[in-house]
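Lesson 9: reading folded outputs for more than one chain in a single document. The general rule is that every protein is listed as its sequence immediately followed by its structure tokens, and records are never interleaved. Here is the first one.
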Amino acid sequence: MILREAPPTSGLRPKWSDLIGAFRGPSNLEERIAEFLDVPEVQLECSGTASLVIAFEYLKTLSRRRKVVIAGYTCPLVVLAAEQAGLRIAVCDTVRGGFDLDLTHLGKQLDDETLCVVPTHYGGALTDVDRVRCFIQAASREIFVIEDAAQSFGAKYNGRPVGTAGHIGIFSFAAGKGFTLYEGGCLYGETPEIRRGLRETSTRLRNHKRLLELRRSLELLAYHFLYNPLCLSFVYGGPRRYWLKRNDPIRAIGDYFTGPIPLHKVGSWRRKVGCQALSRLRDHLDRTRDRFDALSDQLERACPEISTHSPAEGYQPTGSFVFVTFTSGKACDEALRVLWSLGSGVSRLFACAIDEYPYLSGRITSTTTNASDLARRTLIISTSEMMEERQLGAIYRAIRS
């Protein structure tokens, strides 16, 4: 029985002082997030996926186009958000062996029906959104870019905050993220007109679900009790092992989702807790990036045949995990088989390429050879401070074998 489990990502550890300080603390979380990102303003929403639905619905008011192009290696929630907004979905493949969008394949997906493209950032790697946007604008000025920075709140690209290179940026504050409200997210619009339109769209779509907000508040409270190695072995590791025994890796890594996506207002108490936690985030990110750099270097020295996708110059991901890509899917599967049984902070980010999820069958019109190959050969290793030397030792041995 595993009594200590490391989380798959480096989340900001909750502190009881955040809850205590929230009773008399400020609730201006949107202003503080905007200050953190050094942008004029942001829009707080109940989840990153809800933010994406709002972005899609807003863009629909500007155009008669109804197709969205998403990354081949991304979260299934992106598909559900597009479907809820009534958009048709096409998929752009990644470059071979990497996470950037393949611009040759992207060009084949762009047409007179394309409303927007959604490039995705990751906790362990960033996508060149500037390159994608320039490519799209050369094809059409009527196609928007929504920057999916759900995993990358606090990341930077050439000194700029990630999430600000597209027309709209999306962030997630879900459980396990660097900064969390248990469930939450926010939007950034490039221009005052876009920001105004996003707020109007949110007001139009939002439901007053007080019971759901009460549930989220209780879940955030429980998160403070449970986000530690002992409790994670039960609430995170237990369900994962249950589904692995039943040969269901999609549910094991938490990749099975259903709609509809809720849209409601984040309550005052969670905003106040968020204000307290946000004040600790910069230090957390600095420590996480130090562990990310050290782990990447150690892995590349110990196992030169694998790739950790080290960031290019000017790229500064949050470093919440390290990508490890093996030479074959078989080698990756064998390492996972060993490490999943040890509670060692190792997992897959996504179970497969987005067009290969059985429960999304029929919703996607294109295939992604490179993303499929990448997903089969890639796992993630947590950079959480809960990782222990014995766990890292087991990881090195499993990867070398």
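And here is the second record, again sequence then tokens.
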Amino acid sequence: MRQKYILPSVFTLNLVIKCFLKDNKWKEALDLFDEAVELGVPNVLTYNILLNWFSQVGRVKEARELWDRMDEMGVKPSVASYNSMLLGHCKQGDMDLAATLYTEMSKRGLNPNVVTFTTLMDGYIRSKDFDKAHDLVETMRNLGITCNEYTFNTLINGLCMSGRMSEVSNMLRKFMDEGFTPTSMTFNSIINGYIKAGMMSSALSTYQQMLKNGTSPTIITYTSFIHGYCKNYCSDLAVKMLNEVKRKGLGLDIAAYNALIVAFSKEGNMSGARKLFDDLLKAGLKPNAAIYNSLITGYKNLYKMESAIELHEQMVEEGISCDLATYTTLIDGLLKVGNVNFALELYSDMVAKGIFPDDVTFTALTHGFFRNGDIERAQKILDDMEEKDVRPNVIIYNMLINGYFREGKLQEAFRLHDKMLERGIVPDGASTVEAFIQGNLKEMVLGG
């Protein structure tokens, strides 16, 4: 810019910076800004554009550096400047710094506006401090600032997120008395809150109120109901919602399809689950690891490991990375049908890919080897856990202790029992105790 002796107007500069940021080219935007600063072109709006973008995307460090630089250059921040910084700190959950900035505004003679308060409310809600968020409403009123639609929705959503559903109706009625007209966002927040609280009838009542008010349900409305019905094992009602979505020409997202597939899989209805899988492909959606894992789990629960393995192979072909859940489910299923070699092959493949087994994986392996009468391999799993500093659970110890008792290896059983106690793992009842009783009786009988 300087080499060509071009001195852009601040309007042009701001426009170009916005274009860079829109394309996520923030480094290029900063380079241009640095050159412009040397030429004395930027104004407070230039800073605000950058501050807002950095705060929106969570780059609070860069926003703070720019804020300090703004002060060094003698550029006085505006209310919009403070609002951007508040947004960044609130998104990060740093409410102490946000509160300091808010206080600083008044000292500089800047009057906070509805955006300031709504941003702070959202921050307190994110930090699970709804009461502080609600207290700001009174502060706004004292300052003569009117709540807008976003403020009301933020508070209602906050109440729902806090699980305080018994207070929602009164708050909504109070806001409506003040002139607020509920939007689809309002109803969606309330419906989702009721569903998360397991209050499906209240969610349905809110849905009816939504229709009565002439507010059209959105895909978010239907997705919430689908998740709720699936969670409550009402897949038939979830399918009704799915059909309603199709009838209205709306499209579900991957998460909604996954909820339905999980519900069908839990019911053992794998044909229904596969139909949904085909539907999402037809809808142009790309299945992710969660979708495949849900189907694989469904087939595993029915001991249909051939179908589960086919899906695993399909994942690999599609370039979808198998995660720990994929491998653990497949290993568990293969061991349950007695295919030990393939299970070990997958275990080796998992470790080779740098996927670290957890206690669930180790428990599946131990249980699988134990079921197949291979206590030596089961013991090796326990040894591997200790080497990898993974704490074995009481289930693993119980299985091995029982196994050693069955084989008459009482010394090994007692050694493991002592080791379990040394590690602070408390026996959880019948299995371990019964094993010891049976072992002691056997020893007495043999000794007698």
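What the second record shows: The chain is about 75% helix and 0% strand.
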